[in-house]
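Researcher: Next entry in the queue.
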Amino acid sequence: MNNHLTSQISVEELVEEEKEKVQTLLIDSYQQYEHSFSDPEFWRGYLDDIKSSLENPFVDRILVAKLGQEIVGTVQLFKTAEKAYKQMEVPIYAPFIRLLAVHPKARGRGIAIELLKACVAYAKEIEAKSIYLFTGDEMAKAIRLYEWFGFKRDLPIGFVNDNNSPKCYRFDL
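Model: Structure for this entry, 173 residues:
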C-alpha cells in the first residue's frame, strides 16, 4: 500500500450535514450484492435497513473516511452485537462493526484499512478485548481483507438471512 495515498485519507465522526451523502454511499456500495439475494422482498428490506441505519438510536459511532473533503467510506460501531442487531439475540457483548462501506469508485486505495484501524482504536478506547463483525460468502473480497487485517472466524451464528448464513469474525486487541 502506498503510504502517500493512505496519508491522504482522514477518518472522522459523521456530522449531521453528511448523512445524506453517507446514505447514498451505503446504497452505492451495497447495491452490488442485490443478485445474491433470492428473495426480492428480503433484498428490499435489507436495503431499507441500510437506508435507515444512520438514524439507529443504538449506534455508538458512525465514522466517515474522506479523501480531501470527499466522503469515500463509512462504518458503524456498536458497543455490543445485541445493540447492532436489536431484532435478534446475538450473544456477543463486545464492540461490533456494521455496514463498513467504500464507494465502488474509491476502492483499492486503503480506505477500508483506515476504517478498520479506526474501529480497532474505538475498541481500545472503550477498553474492549475484541471487536466483531458479521459478513457473508457473497462478500468474498471483504472477507479476504478482514482475514488479511487479522480477523479470525469465530462463533457459529444461529440465524439465516435469505438462505445466507452470516459468518462471525473477531479481532483480538
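Model: The chain has six helices and seven strands.
Researcher: Noted, moving on.
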